[in-house]
Design a protein that fits this description.
By secondary structure, this protein is an alpha/beta fold. Helices cover 27% and strands 21% of the residues. The chain is built from 19 helices and 29 strands.
Length: 666
């Protein structure tokens, strides 16, 4: 035994030297396809948490084929060197596992189990003696230097409770439950009808079909409001010949809940506007319009309760009314910026009136200094029912947190807004849509409205049907054309002003020309539809410098539409739209002579422009050299006397680059 003991010591020393120099490659596992992290850990008798910590792995679910996994900390394995007397045995300590004992003594757990006649290597106990070598001399093969991954013991069965160590996949966050819809409020809306209540090929569906749609929507949801965003009482001669009275009758038949004053509601003057307000069977609102002393002009807001929901509705009129309508029509009034009014009124509606929903019925539009978005960005408005720009929004647009909706113009669409609320009357959602004239082609006109319209037409017939002249060609008053370039109708109007006044030059704003006149007989009704505003012809004296500034003013928005676009007579203009606005005029000639900036010229125009309307501030305050009849009468008299030949296009207004006009306002 002494002889064997010496040999055993020598062998153990050799094994120790070999083992301590063994590369750490044997402590690394290479991931194979199909491996799962917790199973790798279990195979090597450790936990997935410990293995993850050793490898710095944050997500144990993300491992990949050929990835190297360290099996233990980066330190050399301690080798126990048994002495002469105790070298044949190892005494089990608390926490020991059978395969670790085998590995420590550079053997396999199978050999060690066979040597000790152990059937279940998982069942070892503290202080148990494990035989390390047989009683006779055992020749141990030296460990090869080849750095290969050692075979690991086959996975012994583990107690069932160890399966709890499998990492759980993180649960996906649960989506918050959508609030339950308790109530649905429906808003129907119109804007910029301009008296176009009769269905026509080129305009809208008309009032009778509109009324049928409104009846159907109200029947489907009794919680419905009907609102109008202004410019209803002026435009088409059906409205204009009665100074808005026919519009009032029709809107009362529709049973509107409220409307706002558009700029054209002021066209007949403040006194007539107040008469119209008195005739309406629903509120006419304008919270930002007041008398010059700050006192109330008309009501600013109302509160309606629908199915237990308090709805605050307030009006916002465009401050452009001071120059979009004749300035005399707003004399004694002032207009507050819409954003300032919004902050003040919304606070009152929310805090004092307890409004659950706040709606602004507005006539602001999408361009200029005070677009509807400025009111929306002021905060607190749920929906802005807007008008003024004649633009339709099929699904609405955003202005801050507000939904801005608009139907276009001339009864071409009916607007619908659906507002859903929860049991506490909190708004859950807002949705906008339009019912177009095309969609309503099979809708049956409301018979009562049809009767009302026929009565109005009959009353207007004697005036409308009066033939005043004849034209062999169509006279072009198409909106895009008159707001971006020369047309024969514009030429006729400027020619009529020069003929009457004897002026050197004439300017007519394209926004004042409202529609076409078809070839054939021309009636008074057609002329009134083209020139519905009752503007008078005026003559003033201006310098060449002021005349050029006036032309620049009208070309500001080109190639896009602009109501200020100048139709001219007695002169020619060349301009370059690629240049900065205000510096676009290349050449102006008056009676074939270059414009002299210091010379004075007699200008015929309408009293809307001489009051500074459409930005023609250079005309404001000028002494009138002549005052004449209204434009419609002047044009009729001229066509009767001279025909329509002088309306022929002459190329008097030319963009030098050939840039084509574009639809819409920039």
């Amino acid at each position: 035994m002494k002889k064997y003991g010496k040999r055993l010591v020598v062998l153990l020393v050799i094994f120790s030297l070999i083992f301590t120099s063994y590369s750490f490659a044997s402590d690394v596992y290479t991931v194979k396809s199909g491996d799962v992290f917790w199973k790798i850990a279990r195979r090597y008798n450790t936990t997935w948490q410990q293995l993850a910590k050793i490898n710095g792995i944050k997500n144990p679910n993300l491992i990949f084929p050929n990835q190297k996994i360290k099996l233990r900390e980066d330190k050399k394995v301690e080798v126990i060197k048994p002495d002469k007397n105790s070298g044949k045995f190892y005494v089990v300590k608390s926490g020991d596992t059978f395969w670790k004992i085998a590995r420590r003594y550079n053997t396999t757990w199978q050999n060690l189990a066979k040597l000790n006649s152990i059937k279940n290597p998982n069942l070892i106990f503290p202080n148990q003696k494990i035989k390390l070598i047989p009683d006779e001399e055992v020749k141990v093969k030296p460990v090869e230097e080849k750095k290969e991954e050692p075979k690991k013991p086959e996975e012994p069965k583990k107690p069932a409770e160890e399966k709890k160590e499998e990492p759980k996949k993180p649960e996906e966050p649960k989506k918050p439950a959508e609030p339950e819809v308790a109530k649905t409020i429906q808003i129907l809306h119109t804007n910029d009808m301009h008296g176009f209540f009769v269905e026509s090929k080129y305009e809208g569906m008309g009032a009778a079909k509109l009324k049928t749609l409104i009846n159907e929507k109200r029947a489907a949801n009794p919680n419905t409001l009907l609102l109008d965003a202004g410019d209803a009482v002026q435009g088409h001669n059906l409205a204009t010949l009665t100074k808005g009275e026919n519009s009032v009758k029709l809107m009362n038949a529709f049973k509107y809940d409220a409307m706002v004053t558009g700029n054209h509601e002021f066209d007949y003057g403040v006194e007539r506007l107040l008469e119209i307000k008195k005739g309406l069977q629903f509120p006419l609102l304008a919270a930002n319009v007041m008398k010059e002393d700050g006192s109330k002009f008309i009501d600013g807001y109302i509160v309606k309760e629908v199915d237990g929901v308090k709805i605050g509705i307030f009006g916002l009129a465009t401050p452009e009314t001071k120059f979009k309508s004749h300035p005399r029509n707003t004399k004694g009034l002032k207009f507050e910026a819409p954003a300032d009014t919004t902050k003040r009124v919304v606070k009152k509606l929310r805090e004092e009136e307890g409004a659950d929903i706040v709606i602004a019925v507005a006539h602001l539009g999408e361009t200029g200094k005070w677009p509807a978005k400025t009111a929306g960005e002021a905060g607190g408005i749920d929906v802005i029912v807007d008008g003024h720009s004649h633009v339709g929004y099929p699904e609405g647009i955003k202005g801050g947190e507000s939904l801005i909706v608009s139907t276009g113009a001339h009864t071409k669409n009916l607007g619908i807004v659906t507002i859903k609320l929860d049991k506490d009357n909190k708004v859950i959602s807002k949705k906008a849509e339009l019912i177009s004239k095309k969609m309503a082609k099979d809708v049956k006109p409301d018979p009562d409205v049809n009767v009302l319209i026929e009565e109005m037409k009959k009353a207007n017939e004697p005036i409308e049907k009066m033939v005043v002249a004849n034209t062999p060609v169509e006279l072009d008053g198409e909106r895009l054309h008159v707001r971006t370039g020369e047309t024969n109708l514009g030429n006729l109007i400027t020619a009529s002003m020069i003929d009457l006044s004897g002026a050197d030059v004439a300017i007519m704003n394209g926004g004042g020309i409202r529609t076409n006149i078809e070839a054939g007989d021309i009636t008074k009704g057609q002329i009134l539809t083209v020139l519905p505003f009752g503007n008078e012809v005026k003559m003033i004296e201006i310098t060449g410098e002021e005349l050029q500034a006036a032309i620049e003013n009208g070309l500001t928005n080109y190639p896009y539409e602009m109501g200020a676009f100048p139709h001219i007579g007695g002169m020619t203009v060349k301009f370059d739209a690629t240049k900065e606005a205000g510096s676009r005029v290349v050449e102006i000639k008056v009676k074939d002579k270059a414009l002299d900036p210091k010379a004075t010229y007699k200008l015929a125009t309408n009293d809307f422009l001489t009051a500074g309307g459409d930005g023609y501030k250079m005309f404001k305050g000028k002494e009138f050299l002549g005052e004449y009849s209204t434009l419609d009468k002047v044009l009729i008299d001229y066509i009767v006397a001279n025909g329509t030949d002088s309306g022929k296009l002459t190329g008097r207004m030319v963009e030098v680059n050939g840039m084509e006009p574009k639809e819409g306002e920039k």
